[in-house]
């Protein structure tokens, strides 16, 4: 069976036989695509925070960090990432931002 997800093809070597297994396969493909978009949006926002830190724009850093925290929390609430991983990501970002602000002071 070949599933097309965007421009990428997914090949499944073992075709499901039962109807319930076929449905599970359809659901898994759909959920994987949805989870990947959420995770990608989260990573993009984290990258924007890093870019703002390189530019040393305090207002932009704060705005991007708030959005990044929101995206990370959303991913954690949907079990796309573990809640402790989310807390660690936010903590590390906050620590880097605080270090940057103390260096510039």
Which descriptors apply to this entry?
single chain; mainly alpha; 105 residues; 3 helices; Methane Monooxygenase Hydroxylase, Chain G, domain 1; 2 strands; elongated
Give the H and E element order.
EEHHH
> What strand line-up does the widest sheet have?
1-2
Query: Total helix count?
Result: 3
Give me the CATH fold name. Answer: Methane Monooxygenase Hydroxylase, Chain G, domain 1
Shape field: elongated
By CATH, the superfamily comes out as Ribosomal protein S20
Number-wise, the strands total: 2
Largest sheet properties: 2 strands, antiparallel
The share of residues in extended strands comes to 5-15%
Alpha-beta classification: mainly alpha
Instruction: Estimate nothing, just give the exact number of structural domains.
Output: 1
Radius of gyration, in angstroms, nearest whole number: 19 Å
CATH architecture: Up-down Bundle
Query: Regions with pLDDT < 50 over 5+ consecutive residues?
Result: none
For the terminal residues, how far apart are their CA atoms?
Answer: 59 Å
CATH level 1 class label:
Mainly Alpha
Q: Helicity, in percent?
A: over 70%
Q: What is the average per-residue confidence, as pLDDT, rounded to a whole number?
A: 90
Description of the structure:
The chain has helices at residues 19-55, 58-77, 83-104, and strands spanning 2-5, 8-11. With 105 residues, the protein is mainly alpha-helical. It has a single domain, classed as Ribosomal protein S20 (Methane Monooxygenase Hydroxylase, Chain G, domain 1). It has a two-stranded antiparallel sheet with strand order 1-2. It is elongated, with a radius of gyration of 19 Å. The relative contact order is 0.10.
């Amino acid at each position: 069976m070949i599933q097309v997800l965007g421009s990428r093809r997914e090949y499944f070597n073992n075709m499901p036989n039962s109807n319930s297994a076929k449905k599970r396969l359809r659901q898994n493909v759909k959920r994987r695509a949805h989870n990947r978009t959420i995770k990608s949006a989260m990573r993009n926002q984290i990258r924007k925070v890093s870019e703002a830190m390189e530019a040393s724009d305090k207002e932009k850093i704060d705005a991007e960090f708030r959005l990044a925290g929101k995206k990370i929390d959303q991913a954690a609430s949907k079990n796309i990432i573990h809640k402790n991983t989310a807390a660690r990501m936010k903590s590390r970002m906050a620590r880097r931002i605080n270090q940057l602000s103390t260096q510039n002071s």
